[in-house]
């Protein structure tokens, strides 16, 4: 057996297989513990050629030397061997002498593995042949089958040819429709022809190799179930390729109605076209068409809504007896948010209203007409021959969300087990400020009280960290991993890793304390970036605090932290900080310098009365830190530096001047917070602060001066609009909930977020806008002017902005949004007078539509510069019609 193990270590797979053939089953089982030990050894070894070459023969030998199907399946799917497996053909040879029942059991277990286990399809398919078992239809097997069929470059034939030869075609195609996220795999082939999945499946259905009815039903059912964009796209294409007959379409009328109502836009459009064809041929009852319209007319896709109105118009013209059923369905569009849709629906009613005079349908039209915008109500009253109720509300009340209240941090965790739970949660979920600070304070407190008990409680958490290994290494080995890695202590999770590794430290005579202390000290003194970026001034104080805490836990553990915030925003109550300093004096504890500096930046100074009372108590302590705190609290409240705008390409950025109070008496790592910031973006490509999770922690550095943080993150936030980057606007709600003046940088961040490419970023910006408005901190004039400037220079697209402000207005903030747009629109409308090509008009009509709706709902009135010139233009474009609508709305006064 020693000969076989030597061959495994040397990577001689063929020799290992030959030696295994000579062993009995009992000898193979006896060998397995040695193979298992070698696997454990290789896991801890560096990923180098010497260790990698042992994996293929080890993989094969482990399969051959185990007798249980469950154990073999686990070995085959093991993650640590995934990249060094032997060929499926070799494994099938090693397993070929097993009983069919055993092989069937193994097949089922492998097929039930997640797709991420990457079990080779060729192995599973070979086991099916050897065992004679039914073909598995699990996700892993079907995904593997599709990938195998897709590999045309290896065989030269087409998808259609390969499917024709498959003995399990019917079973696997049926499973195809039940497999989630399969669409992207099916799209690896061309979209049409015998090399496409849709073309091949349609052809096989024509050849009756697949049951047509079952295939059509499965395809429709899959579209009804929904799924990813790729799934919908592929199965819709397949449905079109099947070319359903009129009889097949008719017997699935209920399915088309459901798809038209709820499916994604392309699928709904297909269903709408099928139903339209049936309706115009007289094969869809008017009641069914009205039912369809009730759903489609309230979809957000204007193309579907307009197509439905066109269909209703054709149906009404084709058969006048349907008016009593279909006109009330048309009137459903009177409540649509788009005034163009309302006008189209009203034109239909005007054309056919005489067909329903003195009927119940007429009464329904009168009720529905109450939803029309003011500019259309007079026309509706005239055509219906009746007076409508007063336009708009008698009084308007703005609806803003409740002001978000910060939460008070709970007392420190009471036991080491509780600390371990909080640390585990913080590391798993991208720790928020409150969770991170609470876990950090718990670590420091319990490390001071009982370090051994804390380490023991943390063992399950430590075992999952990248630096931990198998737990048997000494401290020097652990710290070597940190020193070899490009380790950024300016990240929240990395900072916790540094502190956990410090707590774990066990030294013996081979691991002198001074080596680890030097490494920790280097973390304290190093700068967080080799080449500074715009975030360095924020990352350095954050990282230096964590590194110094780790260093002190190794050398002189503090009893607790001074800077743990009182509130979730990072704000620290002055009386609480004085109490902590008093306790430090009583214990004779030495202050962690960077932690005290952070406490000064967090302590609440805006309330001068509270600050003065705390300053008196701090001075009475008689300590250096007490005197420093007293001086800090008695100086003027949080101030901001001078600022000026700079244009960089299409971007508008903010530069800050020097803030002297953050220069004197602060540590070197904290002084950059008060230094001037530049709009120069030359170093941004060297920035490694890519994690969005760290952004709220930077706000918690300066909880009463968010403008300083916003100016340093303005470039990041601008990318969501200018570069179509996803996710950078997630910080905006935190920015809105933070403290201090909301100045130029905050409002520019908000403006970029409202013009973001991705919906989730726009929603984050809307949340921030409403929060600032609810707190009375939104400068609508400044935001509106910023938006106008950014649209003019091309940084923000009007259509994206229109989506954002429409969403905000829909919450009830009509007056707020009107006040913003009142300052945005004149900038855009003035550009129309000099734009002969009309390029500056693109999307402005949408903004005018939102502004008109807000003005109608809130009762805004008065003049808007340049609106009249736009409204007086010829034509009926959306720009002109919405300008006229807004002009009419502003001319009507609504009672306050």
Automatic annotation (TrEMBL):
Entries under InterPro entries matching the protein: DUF7824, DUF7825
Domain DUF7825: 692-807
Residue ranges occupied by any DUF7824 domain in the UniProt entry: 435-618
Pfam families given in the database record: DUF7824 (PF25148), DUF7825 (PF25149)
Coiled-coil features, chain-numbered ranges: none
Name of the protein this chain belongs to: Secreted protein
Species in which this protein is naturally found: Streptomyces pseudovenezuelae
């Amino acid at each position: 057996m020693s000969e076989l193990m030597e061959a495994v270590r040397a990577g001689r797979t063929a020799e290992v297989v030959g030696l295994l053939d000579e062993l009995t089953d009992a000898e193979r089982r006896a060998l397995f513990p040695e193979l298992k030990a070698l696997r454990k050894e290789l896991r801890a070894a560096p990923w180098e050629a010497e260790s990698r070459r042992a994996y293929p023969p080890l993989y094969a030998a482990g399969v051959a030397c185990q007798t249980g199907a469950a154990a073999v399946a686990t070995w085959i799917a093991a993650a640590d061997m995934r990249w060094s497996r032997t060929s499926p053909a070799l494994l099938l040879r090693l397993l070929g002498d097993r009983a069919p029942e055993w092989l069937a059991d193994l097949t089922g277990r492998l097929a039930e593995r997640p797709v991420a286990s990457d079990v080779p399809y060729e192995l599973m398919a070979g086991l099916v042949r050897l065992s004679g078992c039914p073909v598995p239809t699990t996700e892993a097997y079907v995904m593997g089958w599709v990938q195998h069929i897709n590999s045309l470059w290896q065989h030269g034939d087409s998808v259609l040819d390969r499917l024709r030869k498959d003995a399990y075609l019917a079973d696997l195609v049926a499973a195809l429709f039940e497999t989630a996220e399969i669409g992207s795999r099916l799209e690896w082939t061309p979209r049409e022809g015998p090399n496409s999945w849709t073309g091949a499946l349609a052809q096989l259905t024509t050849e009756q190799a697949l049951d047509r009815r079952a295939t059509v039903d499965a395809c429709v059912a899959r579209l009804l179930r929904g799924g990813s964009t790729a799934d919908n796209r592929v199965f819709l294409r397949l449905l079109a390729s099947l070319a359903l007959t009129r009889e097949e379409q008719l017997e699935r009328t209920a399915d088309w109605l459901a798809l038209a109502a709820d499916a994604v836009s392309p699928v709904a459009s297909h269903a709408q076209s099928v139903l339209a064809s049936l309706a115009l041929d007289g094969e869809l009852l008017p009641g069914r068409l009205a039912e369809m319209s009730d759903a489609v007319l309230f979809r957000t896709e204007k193309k579907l809504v307009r197509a439905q109105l066109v269909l209703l118009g054709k149906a009404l013209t084709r058969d006048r007896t349907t008016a009593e059923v279909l006109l009330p369905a048309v009137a459903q569009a009177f409540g649509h948010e788009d005034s163009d849709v309302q006008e189209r629906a009203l034109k239909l009613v005007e054309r056919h209203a005489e067909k329903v005079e003195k009927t119940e349908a007429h009464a329904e039209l009168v009720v529905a007409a109450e939803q029309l915008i003011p500019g259309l109500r007079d026309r509706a009253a005239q055509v219906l021959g009746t007076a409508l109720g007063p336009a708009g509300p008698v009084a308007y009340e703005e609806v803003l969300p409740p002001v978000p209240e910060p939460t008070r941090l709970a007392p420190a965790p009471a036991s080491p087990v509780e600390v371990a739970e909080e640390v585990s949660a913080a590391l798993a979920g991208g720790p928020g400020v409150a969770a991170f600070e609470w876990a950090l304070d718990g670590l420091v407190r319990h490390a001071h009280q009982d370090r051994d008990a804390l380490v023991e409680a943390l063992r399950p958490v430590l075992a999952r960290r990248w630096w931990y290994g198998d737990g048997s290494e000494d401290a020097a080995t652990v710290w070597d991993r940190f020193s070899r890695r490009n380790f950024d202590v300016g990240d929240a999770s990395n900072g916790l890793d540094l502190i956990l590794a410090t707590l774990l430290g066990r030294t013996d005579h081979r691991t002198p304390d001074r080596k680890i202390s030097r490494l920790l000290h280097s973390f304290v003194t190093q700068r967080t970036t080799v080449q500074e970026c715009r975030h360095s001034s924020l990352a350095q104080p954050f990282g230096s605090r964590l590194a110094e805490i780790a260093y002190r836990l190794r050398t002189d553990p503090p009893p607790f932290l001074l800077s743990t915030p009182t509130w979730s925003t990072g704000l620290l109550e002055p009386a609480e900080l004085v109490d902590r300093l008093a306790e430090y004096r009583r214990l004779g504890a030495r202050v962690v310098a960077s932690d005290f500096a952070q406490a000064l930046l967090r302590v609440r100074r805006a309330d001068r009365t509270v600050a003065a009372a705390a300053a008196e108590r701090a001075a009475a302590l008689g300590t250096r830190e007490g005197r420093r705190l007293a001086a800090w609290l008695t100086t003027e409240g949080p101030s901001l530096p001078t600022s000026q705008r700079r244009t960089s390409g299409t971007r508008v950025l903010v530069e800050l001047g020097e803030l002297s109070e953050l220069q004197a008496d602060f540590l070197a790592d904290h002084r950059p917070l008060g230094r001037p910031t530049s709009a120069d973006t030359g170093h941004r490509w060297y920035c490694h602060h890519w994690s969005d999770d760290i952004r709220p922690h930077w706000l918690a550095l300066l909880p009463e001066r968010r403008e300083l943080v916003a100016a340093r993150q303005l470039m990041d936030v601008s990318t969501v609009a200018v570069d179509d980057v996803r996710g950078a606007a997630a910080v905006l709600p935190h920015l809105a909930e933070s403290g201090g003046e909301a100045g130029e940088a905050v409002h520019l961040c908000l403006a970029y977020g409202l013009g973001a490419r991705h919906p989730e970023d726009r929603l984050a910006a809307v949340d921030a806008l409403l929060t600032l408005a609810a707190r009375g901190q939104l400068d609508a004039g400044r935001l509106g002017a910023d938006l106008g400037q950014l649209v003019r220079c091309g940084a923000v697209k009007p259509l994206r902005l229109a989506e954002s402000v429409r969403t905000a207005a829909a919450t009830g903030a009509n007056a707020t949004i009107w006040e913003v747009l009142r300052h945005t629109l004149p900038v855009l409308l003035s550009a129309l007078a000099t734009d002969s090509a009309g390029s500056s008009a693109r999307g402005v009509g949408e903004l005018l539509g939102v502004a008109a709706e807000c003005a109608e709902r809130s009762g805004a009135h008065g003049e808007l510069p340049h609106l009249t010139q736009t409204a007086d233009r010829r034509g009926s474009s959306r720009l002109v019609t919405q300008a006229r609508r807004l002009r009419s709305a502003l001319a009507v006064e609504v009672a306050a």
